[in-house]
């Protein structure tokens, strides 16, 4: 009498349930976690004892929670701007320079001139020596330049 080909029994490790239970998610406790964390998902998820990915998915199921998160992030940015204003008013050089190079860049306060353009463009430039021409071409990332008369 032949043996039947039964699969071998495998000894898998036993899985223990975690003693930490995540609270039931509600609009109120997720909203509170977002408020307490300035809208930062990783921090809010840790407070709720759930994964960041699960919190992200949960929030995006409810448009009102999306609004809460956006509002908290905006409030955080407002707070940072208020701190920056105080530093500028105290005359802290780094704060003045930072403010002018970001908020004041439309007024020309920037360390580097930046031009954004899509499409064709012609550019007339005064006399340059060969080194200046090469540097300019490298900066503009132009392969060919037509001579200007």
Q: First CA to last CA: what distance?
A: 102 Å
Summing up helix and strand content along with how strands pair, one would put the structural category as mainly alpha
* Uncertain stretches: none
Taking all Cα atoms into account, the compactness measure Rg is 30 Å
The total tally of domains equals 1
**How many beta-strand runs?**
0
Spell out the helices and strands N to C.
HHHHHH
| C-alpha geometry | flat
Give the number of helices: 6
Structure characterization notes:
With 149 residues, this protein is mainly α. The protein has one domain. It contains 6 helices and no strands. The chain is flat, with a radius of gyration of 30 Å. It starts with 26 loop residues before the first helix and ends in a 9-residue tail after the last helix. The model has no long low-confidence stretch (mean pLDDT 81).
Q: How are the secondary structure elements laid out?
A:
Elements: H1 27-36, H2 41-48, H3 52-59, H4 63-89, H5 93-102, H6 130-140
Helix pairs in contact: 1-2, 1-4, 2-3, 4-5
Please give a quick description of this structure.
The protein is mostly helical and 149 residues long. It contains 6 helices and no strands.
